[in-house]
Amino acid sequence: MKRHLPETELARDERFRRNKVEDQIFDPRNLAMATRDLGPAQMSVDRPSVSERSRSLMHGIFVGEIQALEGAGRTCFDFDDADAPFALKLDMARQCWDESRHVEISCKLADHMGTDIGEYGESTFLYAAACNTDPVMRLCGVNRALEGLAIDVFSSMKAFGETTEDPILTFCEDWMLADEVTHVKMGSDWMRRLTENDLDRRERALEFQRTVDKVFSLGGFRGESEENPIQITRKFRELAGFSQAECDEIAALAQQAMDDARSMVAAAAAAS
Ligand SMILES: [Fe+2]
Ligand SMILES: [Fe+2]
User: Fold this and answer.
1) C-alpha angle with apex 91: 86 to 96, nearest 5 degrees?
2) 262 CA distance to ligand 1 centroid (A)?
3) pTM of the predicted model as reported, rounded to 2 decimal places
């Protein structure tokens, strides 16, 4: 087995279709989300598109779980112990176990929601973030940024399950949420431990985390206002090793992303 497997060599069967992440992120339908689809939070039950949105989101989570499993597995194997201590690899191995369970839960949840594997495309952004040659970058890009996002998504979907009185959705989200808090906490602890004596390296990794956080706040997808379908979950983020200042920073990034989307939509409307 070779070290540092590129995303082009990931094993997928014929059911999976690959999306380019930039197509998904810069899709004008997503950019317009903040201003066009008016009203309170988009996961609220009174929206006609909510079923489609939640199915698409949960399919995205399902492929994210596969890639989280692959990424954590790679970190167990890609590095010598001098670069990634054995105890970190043990934590990553434990994460593989959790992510495998999340893949199984996501498959059953897809059945429950009436979604087929491959019904939506797969972008491999998460795995790409897990290909970094510096394990600290992986911890910041994957465990802290993307699994931090998973905390926000699972918490919001759990609330949606409660609102729609769907105990299967509620329990699935609640169980995965508990694991993700552990994964983000491992990311926070190891990031701090590995960069204790190299604050420049820590800052570079945190900058990568900010970039990823900004990308996934695009179009008002995540935030703290009623308009954001996915709510930033401060309570669980703090349990996972985020400081209050870091939560404030993510909220500010999300607000900036929503303001940018509104400006782009307004500019496009003025030009047409
Ligand atoms: Fe997961
Ligand atoms: Fe995870």
Assistant:
1) 120
2) 31
3) 0.90
